[in-house]
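QA checklist item 7 of 12: single-chain prediction sanity check.
[x] sequence parsed
[x] length recorded as 371
[x] structure emitted
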Amino acid sequence: MYNYFMPTNIFFGENSLKENLISKLSSDNKILIVTGKNSAKISGVQSDLTELLETNKIEYKVFDKITENPKLETVHEGANYFLQNNCNMVIGIGGGSPIDSAKAISIISANKFTNKEFYDSEKIQKAFPIIAIPTTSGTGTEATQYSVITDTEKNRKAGFGSPIMFPKYSFLDPKYTISLPKIITRDTAIDALSHLIEGIYSNKRNKIVYPLIYDGVKLIFENLKNTLENPNDIHLREKLMLASLYGGIVIAQTGTTMQHAIGYPLTTNFGVSHGLANGVVMKQIMEKFYPAVENDLDELFTFLNIQKNDFYDWLDSLDLGINANLNSEFIEKNTAQVLGSKNMLKNPMEINSDDIMEIYSSVRGLRGLGG
């Protein structure tokens, strides 16, 4: 049996924000805009949003302290600011970090959490309305019930989620991704690719979303390199944004697997971007999982009109590598962390510590993309 639940009202395409946002708000909304210092401004979305709100006399405050891999302390600071200003709605602008933070601020504020209670999803009972406006094509968080916040005490990225954490509305306009640098464009697209393929790996795989998986992988496989070469092409940007949305919809149904669990320590220990952390182990994990999902992956490759090795060659051509020393101490310590991750419960086969150590040992060094 398969089940599908997607309560988010999604608006996709050029000017989707400008043409639809105000009709979804009311004069008694007081909004907290959650974002980082620069990306929302550079993309143009922050000025577009605040102009819309000011023109329609809707009150708002801005919390712009979100960094990459947002921390527990930061989202609590944001929640305090939300409550101090009597806000009743949150809008997250940016990549996964600001939107995940907006979700966390919403539920911390609504449930009056004071510490780490939200990591226990059963304690999440209420949420203030959440609106998501992505400026990257990678996380898919605009279509999921999940958030990932770094527990600095444990130096560990940890995810949590609840059906009430789905954004109420999401506005996806590809023009807001045109300003993305080449490296971020690549790495976020690889994150989206991970979500799509993990929809096949997951032991909660859902045939209802297989058409989205196939189309999403094809969009990235056929258009990522062209986008890197032609970053101002709005039509190419639209294709990557659509693939990212598909990836979010997929993992909202299936969850993620070892692909994500094994990448988190690379991010927290070495500052490797989340998408790149997924990418440097993508081939190795596909090889490991292939016997368990061979028919499904072969159907995907048939859809793409390629062989598995062609896919590997394409991955290699993206120059995915990291500048990090994965020594024996790191591998031993973080193998245990990966084994204890909730993501491991979704794997399609049994994985042991030797498997994880082998994958970490195979991670190659940085060759770089440039630009």
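[x] summary fact logged: The mean pLDDT is 95.
[ ] second reviewer sign-off
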